[in-house]
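task queued by scheduler; priority normal; single chain, no ligands, no partner chains; default sampling; output format set to structure tokens
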Amino acid sequence: MRAHSLSHKLIFATLTSIASANFGLPAKAQGLPSYMAPISGRTVSSPVETATKNVLALNTGMFELYDNASRIFEQNILSKHPVILALFSGAGGRFILYRPGMAPLGPRAAVGHRARGGHRQVPGLRPFPRRPGAG
């Protein structure tokens, strides 16, 4: 009985080693799906495609830099200089005065624009002094 169990172990070990060796043939890998091609290794692209991708990547990366720079520039300008922002539409327009260190000052009501002689005082802003002799 002991010889029988030893022969079974020997046969099992032999079959296992033959199966794992696969008779000396290399293992065949299954092909990857097409959507895996960009991450699986080298992809072929023309110099024009590569340049376009590089420019788009640079442009995308610069958006954050441009955004930060515009905020700093806006803060620097508004902290040192008064700015009048004029907003116009088909219904008229309005002005907003940004003064350094103060809250923006704008009209409380919309200021309309007329063809001749019509104007209204914007609350909170002083009018220009009238010239002598002006009608």
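post-processing summary
- The chain is about 45% helix and 10% strand.
- The first strand starts at residue 83 and ends at 89.
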